[in-house]
Amino acid sequence: MLNHEKYQKNPVVHYPERQWPDKEITKAPIWCSVDLRDGNQALIDPMVVDEKIEMFQYLIKLGFKEIEIGFPAASQIEYDFLRQLVERRMIPDDVRVQVLVQCREHLIKRTFEAIQGIKNVVVHIYNSTSTLQRDVVFHKGKDEITQIAIEGTKLVKKYAENFELIDSRTVSLVIPRDEKSRRMVADLKYKQTANERNLQNYTCSLYKNELDDLIKQNVVDDFGTGIYCLTNLDYYDEEIGLLFEARDYLL
User: How many CB atoms lie within 10 A of CB 98?
Assistant: First the structure.
């Protein structure tokens, strides 16, 4: 947000019993889009998988680096949408996604199944604490509601221990899909130098055996730098993502 200076700061409130009122925001925050959850819930006819993918791609184009992608344990559409993003390599390496789940073991387990293979992910667990929810839904007191949150946190830690990080199984591949990225790849090829941070905007992750398959098809090179680049854009589609056979073959 380049125009953050146009807004006035909230006044600092001195309140010794709490720490947060004394804190000030000194730079533009990192914006997290929750459109794929809250926006979808507000629709009379919720989005199907293809519509959610289109929305996700638009959020990427807008420049969001934090995106809440939904509640994968809530429905098959939500689950399938997330798996499509993973399997089609549609989540850029520099984007962190977030999923939402209630503090129930079967839902937490299903959520970790859905996020398997994502490089940067936040699991957001929640538990209703309002008086109405406590009395009518849970039939529990404050201490019992607190215990639900504690047990939920323990479950997340349990499943996180078995979560397989994408870094341990995959490699990054640069997709030079516009003129800027093609210039960076040219610098990498002929000068053996590149700004790896800038290249992250054009990378996707894939399994090592998938990379080997593309190398055998002579459509990937590392230019001797250890950074892999796709050299044939017939193997990439803006809507589908990375392909493992050329588009003309698929047609």
Answer: 20
Shortest CA distance to 109 belongs to which of 127, 97, 123?
A: 123
Count Cβ atoms within 10 A of the Cβ of residue 89 and give its class: 0-12 exposed, 13-18 middle, 19 or more buried: buried
CA atoms within 13 A on the CB side of 167: 4
Q: Is the pTM of this model over 0.70?
A: no
Contacts of 1 (CB under 8 A, 6+ apart): 28, 29, 31
For the stretch 118-121, contacts whose Cβ atoms lie closer than 8 Å and that sit 24 or more positions apart, written own/partner, are 118/86, 118/91, 118/166, 119/91, 119/93, 119/165, 119/166, 119/167, 119/170, 119/205, 120/93, 120/95, 120/96, 121/96, 121/97
Task: Please compute the mean of the pLDDT values over residues 179-196 and round it to a whole number.
Answer: 75
Residue-wise pLDDT for 210-232, tens only, equals: 888 888 889 998 866 667 889 88
What average pLDDT score do residues 180-205 get? Answer: 75
Element (H, E) at 100: strand 96-102
Are 230 and 236 a contacting pair, CB within 8 Å? yes
DSSP one-letter string for 195-224: -HHHHGGGEEEEEHHHHHHHHHTT-EE-TT
The pair of structure tokens assigned to 63 is: 């420049």
Average pLDDT, the chain: 83
Please, is 185 exposed, middle or buried when counting C-beta atoms within 10 Å of its C-beta (0-12, 13-18, 19+)? buried
